[in-house]
Amino acid sequence: MPEVIEVLVEGGRATPGPPLGPALGPLGVNVKAVVDEINKKTKAFEGMQVPVKVIVEGGKFRVEVGTPPTSALIKKALGIEKAKRESGLEFVGDLPMEKVVEIARMKMPQMLTDSLKKAAKQIVGTCVSMGVKVNGKPPKVVQKEIDEGKYDHMFE
């Protein structure tokens, strides 16, 4: 029966210290090799918290990397550290629709939809709560435009 260790690590910066080292040590795998593999696979998410699963069986391991939370991907795309503070009063950035689609493609394996259009609409929904405009417009307007088919050419 495989042992599964689930941790949240900063992209490209896992260390053999807690929580990984103590969890992996008793399982008989090379902790440094596991950490190196995690860092290689999470390098693209540098500066973001990334969910990682380490599956250990018979002295061998494999690493599965999830994607960071949608809000973290939006913040990275905008180059900001924090979302808005006061509900509905300010916008902290403007996310191009191309980035919305890119993030939707990244997140789709973990979303409860098989439609890129619906996934993009969910990403835009996250923009509502973060105070982020999409294509220069309030995100609720963009959600209506998605429903009307304005961006269908991007979801093919």
Structure in words:
- It is a single chain.
- This protein is of the alpha+beta class and 156 residues long.
- The protein has 2 domains: 3-65, Ribosomal protein L11/L12, N-terminal domain (Ribosomal protein L11, N-terminal domain, 2-Layer Sandwich), CATH 3.30.1550; 70-155, Ribosomal protein L11/L12, C-terminal domain (Arc Repressor Mutant, subunit A), CATH 1.10.10.250.
- It has helices spanning 20-24, 31-42, 70-78, 97-107, 116-130, 139-148, and strands at residues 3-10, 49-57, 60-65, 93-95, 132-134.
- It has a 3-stranded antiparallel β-sheet. Strands 4-5 form a two-stranded parallel sheet.
- A hairpin with a 2-residue loop joins strand 2 and strand 3 (60-65).
- Helix 4 (97-107) packs across helix 5 (116-130).
- The chain is elongated.
- The termini are far apart.
- 26% of the residues are buried.
- The mean pLDDT is 91.
Write the SSE topology.
Elements: E1 3-10, H1 20-24, H2 31-42, E2 49-57, E3 60-65, H3 70-78, E4 93-95, H4 97-107, H5 116-130, E5 132-134, H6 139-148
Helix pairs in contact: 3-4, 4-5, 5-6
Q: What would the keywords be for this entry?
A:
156 residues, alpha+beta, Ribosomal protein L11, N-terminal domain, Arc Repressor Mutant, subunit A, 3-stranded antiparallel β-sheet, two-stranded parallel sheet
